[in-house]
Write a structure and sequence with these properties.
Length: 123
């Protein structure tokens, strides 16, 4: 994840813009979408600091979270990947972890890759 911290107001504004676009049935502006995703990844990293799980939300961001063994080379043993829409829905409580996994909207591998106990976040 980027070292640049997203302030709470900017993150909430981006989330509101993404929600408004979804309510109108239109795609969100790319900048707002990216900021919303990165803000929620930042909140997850604050809630569960660590380096044992890599959460990927292409093309906008990734974060290493959850305490445990650190990986230093190659693909990490615990990876969670999803599209931006799914990530925002999970992080805001619009979608439950088990539902997302069962529907194939989340790809998770590794013994620490279950983020269900960390979601939703409270943006």
């Amino acid at each position: 994840m980027s070292a640049r911290r997203i302030e709470t107001g900017a993150g909430r504004a981006a989330l509101a813009e993404v929600a408004a676009a979804a309510a109108q049935g239109s795609p969100p502006a790319r900048a707002a979408h990216a900021t919303a995703v990165r803000y929620l990844l930042q909140l997850l990293a604050e809630k569960a600091p660590g380096t044992s799980v890599e959460v990927r939300v292409p093309p906008f961001g990734a974060a290493q979270v959850v305490q445990g063994p650190r990986h230093t080379r190659g693909t990490p043993p615990n990876v969670v990947e999803m599209d931006p829409r799914t990530w925002i829905a999970l992080a805001t409580g619009e979608l439950a972890w088990v539902e997302a996994v069962a529907a194939g909207r989340v790809r998770a591998s590794g013994v620490r890759a279950d983020l269900g106990h960390l979601l939703p976040l409270r943006p």
